[in-house]
Amino acid sequence: MSEKILDGVLEKFAKLAAIPRPSGHEEQVSNFLKNFFEEHGFEVVQDDSKNIIAEIPASIGKENAPLTILQAHMDMVCVAAEGYEYNPTRDPIKLIRGEKFLEAEGTSLGADDGIGIAEILYLVENREKFSHGRLRIIFTVNEEQGMVGAMNLDEKFLAAADFLINCDSERFGELVVGCAGTVHATLWRELHYVRPDTKLPYSLEIKIGGLRGGHSGEEIASGRINAIKIAAQIMRQITLRGKIRLATFSGGKAFNVIPDSAEFTFATDLKAPVVEKICAELESRLKKIYSTELNLKIEVKIVSRPDKVLHVKDYDALSNFITLIHSGVYLLSPEDPTQVIASANLGVVRIDGDIIELKILPRGNDDALIDEFIEGFDQAARLCAFERKFSPPTPAWIFNPDSKLLELAEEIFTEQNGYAPAIKTTHTGLETSFFAKKNPALEIISIGTTNENIHSPNERLHLDTVAPHVKFIAGMLEKISAIES
Ligand SMILES: [Zn+2]
Prior knowledge:
The structure is a single chain. By secondary structure, the protein is of the alpha+beta class. It folds into two domains: 2-180 and 396-481, Zn peptidases (Aminopeptidase, 3-Layer(aba) Sandwich); 182-390, Alpha-Beta Plaits (2-Layer Sandwich), CATH 3.30.70.360. The chain is built from twelve helices and 24 strands. The longest helix is centred in the middle third of the chain and has 18 residues, at 272-289. Residues 73, 112-113, 143, 168 line the site of zinc ion (ZN).
């Protein structure tokens, strides 16, 4: 039975893998999915964003049961191993099926979230094997680059529904029941340059590297140091003993990546060995605190004299601002201190001509926590004369402990698998935030197969979680079909 389910789902997955589907290029896969539902005789809508919405009628006699949405996203993060020839908009994913895992040759696999799509297609084709109420299938585009499909989905497609099962979580055995909201905060200041003072005869470069970095939602609580924060610490230490006039400064890669490196150059009245000592002391102090960051390396190099350096007012404003900005874990759940519910990541600092720009991504598992961050950044920006822009917030999906759907899910999971699922809120983002916002009465859970190393060429799917996940969804639908609404 399980073997048959697995083969059936993988057959669907192979069809998806053959269609290139990086985020923002979903037309082909969207058309494929539209055809699937049309060929099976179902009503299907392809909206302007290329989201697919299909209606599956209830089993006979179950027409009054609650309307349930099954949902997954059709795009994938396309990355290849170094040296592997791969064009994400043209090349299919080559699958390697092993005994325990499904992997891709040289690239990411796209089980995130193709396996969710494949399972739902399989369930639709096998719908006569279990009873179910009315079903709506929603396949969204572009989850991976800003949840564009979910954001643009017309709320009428969520309005009449009672329950939604999202298939975009990465660990079977976990029921995800809440997620974080975010805001992209961009802060900048115009800079003024002067010639470096002749009383500052030394010119140095400091490079901070060897840090682990990582995803700012998933890894924020695993002892990663922010390279930009270290840079600001060094600047302050230098200021305590001498003078520093900054010439260049850069660090970090993106809003949602913890900066693993930063570098800056400056003119100073301190000789290189004095600055080296400051850096060495800080390095060893940090390594004592963070056993997780033993590869941290702070290097000092003598460089040629810069033509221009930041005016002292700009330097003060900048170093004060970075010191004031919180980066890292901010709040743990009072009910479950293993879960982070608020954090911020100072992700990027960059001097570009006459402008210095900072990018910060706060996350909060409640919208009020995001507001608190915005307020704090706004005040700090005011104090240090920085301009600021906040993107429209992605809402948090807030845990509903009274959810009937959750109660059913716990019961069915335990019955089928012989152990209770872990109930989790995640500190990353999920499309469910938008669905909850568009229909606050909608009860939602998220559960997926176990997918390892997603968004990397080492992504792999645990094959033994596919059939249990399919059976779980079918079990849920069967149970829901018994409810008279
Ligand atoms: Zn995903």
